């Protein structure tokens, strides 16, 4: 397990357990420390607990046991206000691209800064509006889409929409980015373009990235560190350069096959 020095740590997960009401144990004692600026690729078969782990980081899901500390906030015990403040610092990019389809690309990006506005209700009338517009245009330029700023979001391709979602996330000025299968719905070329962008912007801005991926070649290309889950437990936590292809593929074998594989290696 990789353990970054305490002063650089932005995420500390210890002994995390999540039991859903139907009896499913999704996480079974997960420990994970992540330091500022790290790029972590989260791997594991369907149902291994990746989404549940990501959701516990901002209390979208409350764990059953264990502790989660993110950017100095003790998430498990934090109240509503602290969690709202924390969520401003944590940007999210999902597989399902959730732009407001009938609004312009620019307005969608501007929405990214709403969480930072002093009074979101009066936000559209505020003088900050032109400044936000300028920042949103800069974010759109950064993702290569300033030319389509006035188009309705629904007129863009899936890959372009995901790039708009990244621009919107940047408007939030997060410190940590959680991406849950951000390219699962895209063709290989668009998927690579989106990953290139996500990788570049997080690196440029020194953000911490935790990204769930199912495509192993992308995981190799973009992950510095690989954390793999199996049945709600951490099975691998190491630097990507030290992992052989067979080890990555082994993460997706069935349990019985896995035991044979582990015994042979
Ligand atoms: N709300 C829920 N209620 C009951 N069980 C759930 C719930 N959400 C997830 N689970 C179960 O918890 C386990 C972990 O699910 P999770 O979505 O975290 O896995 P995952 O690794 O992200 O999978 P995938 O790669 O398919 O997205 C699975 O067995 C799943 O069926």
In terms of topology, how is this protein built?
Blueprint: E1 9-19, E2 25-35, E3 39-43, H1 50-57, E4 65-70, E5 73-74, H2 80-89, E6 90-94, H3 105-110, H4 128-142, H5 158-171, E7 176-180, H6 188-204, E8 208-212, H7 216-222, E9 225-230, E10 233-239, H8 245-250, H9 255-264
Parallel strand pairs: 3-8, 3-9, 6-7, 7-8
Antiparallel strand pairs: 1-2, 1-4, 4-5, 9-10
Structural description of this entry:
It is built from 9 helices and 10 strands. It has 265 residues and is α/β, with parallel strands linked by helices. The chain has a domain of 184 residues: Rossmann fold, CATH 3.40.50.300. α4 packs across α5 and α5 runs parallel beside α6. The longest helix is centred in the C-terminal third of the chain and has 17 residues. Bound molecules: adenosine-5'-triphosphate. Adenosine-5'-triphosphate (ATP) binds next to α1.
CATH classification, class level of the domain at 6-98 and 174-264: Alpha Beta
The major β-sheet equals: 6 strands, mixed
Span of the ends, CA to CA:
19 Å
Shape: globular
The CATH architecture of the domain at 6-98 and 174-264 comes to: 3-Layer(aba) Sandwich
Strand order of the largest sheet: 6-7-8-3-9-10
The CATH homologous superfamily name of the domain at 6-98 and 174-264 equals P-loop containing nucleotide triphosphate hydrolases
Bound molecules: adenosine-5'-triphosphate
User: What is the C-alpha radius of gyration, as a whole number of Å?
Assistant: 19 Å
Question: What letter string, H or E per element, gives the SSE order?
Answer: EEEHEEHEHHHEHEHEEHH
């Amino acid at each position: 397990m990789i353990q970054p020095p305490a002063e650089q740590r932005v995420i500390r997960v210890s002994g995390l357990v999540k039991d859903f009401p139907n009896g499913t144990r999704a996480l079974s004692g997960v420990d994970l420390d992540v330091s500022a600026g790290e790029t972590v690729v989260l791997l594991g078969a369907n149902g291994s607990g990746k989404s549940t782990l990501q959701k516990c980081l901002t209390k979208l899901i409350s764990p059953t046991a264990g502790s989660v500390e993110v950017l100095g906030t003790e998430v498990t015990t934090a109240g509503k206000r602290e969690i709202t403040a924390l969520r401003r610092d944590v940007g999210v990019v999902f597989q399902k691209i959730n732009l407001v389809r009938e609004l312009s690309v620019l307005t969608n990006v501007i929405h990214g800064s709403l969480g930072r506005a002093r009074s979101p209700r009066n936000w559209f009338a505020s003088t900050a509006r032109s400044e936000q517009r300028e920042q949103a245009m800069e974010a759109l330029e950064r993702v290569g889409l300033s030319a389509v700023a006035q188009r309705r979001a629904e007129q863009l391709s899936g890959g372009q929409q995901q790039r708009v979602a990244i621009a919107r996330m940047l408007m939030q000025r997060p410190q940590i980015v959680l991406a849950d299968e951000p390219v699962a719905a895209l063709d290989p070329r668009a998927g690579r373009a989106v990953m290139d962008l996500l990788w570049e912007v997080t690196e440029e801005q020194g953000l911490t990235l935790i990204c769930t991926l199912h495509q192993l070649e992308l995981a190799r290309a973009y992950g510095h560190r690989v954390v793999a889950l199996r049945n709600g437990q951490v099975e691998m936590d190491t630097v990507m350069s030290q992992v052989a292809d067979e080890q990555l593929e082994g993460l997706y074998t069935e349990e019985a096959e896995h035991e044979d594989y582990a015994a042979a290696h």
